[in-house]
């Protein structure tokens, strides 16, 4: 399991995450795993939203850059942690 801590990505053992961190929410730690079902859904929605925002008029199309944040987190999580496990 991977989760965000401030700006970085932290890996947790699945059992440790489910016991200790699943219900805990704080300013520094988000309790939603990046590589779980919810993280995958957010990534897909971000891709669709980012592509739709690109067709807005000139100044507003830069809002599509905000949709890149969950996509980048998911890709970094995959490259740093998940790829090594496969």
TrEMBL record:
Keywords: Membrane, Transmembrane, Transmembrane helix. The chain crosses the membrane at residues 37-56, 62-81. This is DUF3784 domain-containing protein. It comes from Ornithinibacillus salinisoli.
């Amino acid at each position: 399991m991977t989760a965000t801590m401030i700006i970085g990505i932290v890996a947790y053992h699945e059992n440790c995450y489910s016991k200790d961190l699943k219900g805990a929410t704080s300013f520094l730690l988000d309790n939603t795993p990046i590589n779980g079902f919810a993280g995958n859904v957010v990534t897909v929605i971000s891709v669709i939203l980012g592509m739709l925002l690109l067709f807005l008029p000139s100044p507003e199309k830069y809002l599509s850059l905000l949709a890149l944040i969950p996509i980048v987190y998911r890709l970094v999580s995959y490259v740093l942690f998940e790829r090594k496990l496969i």
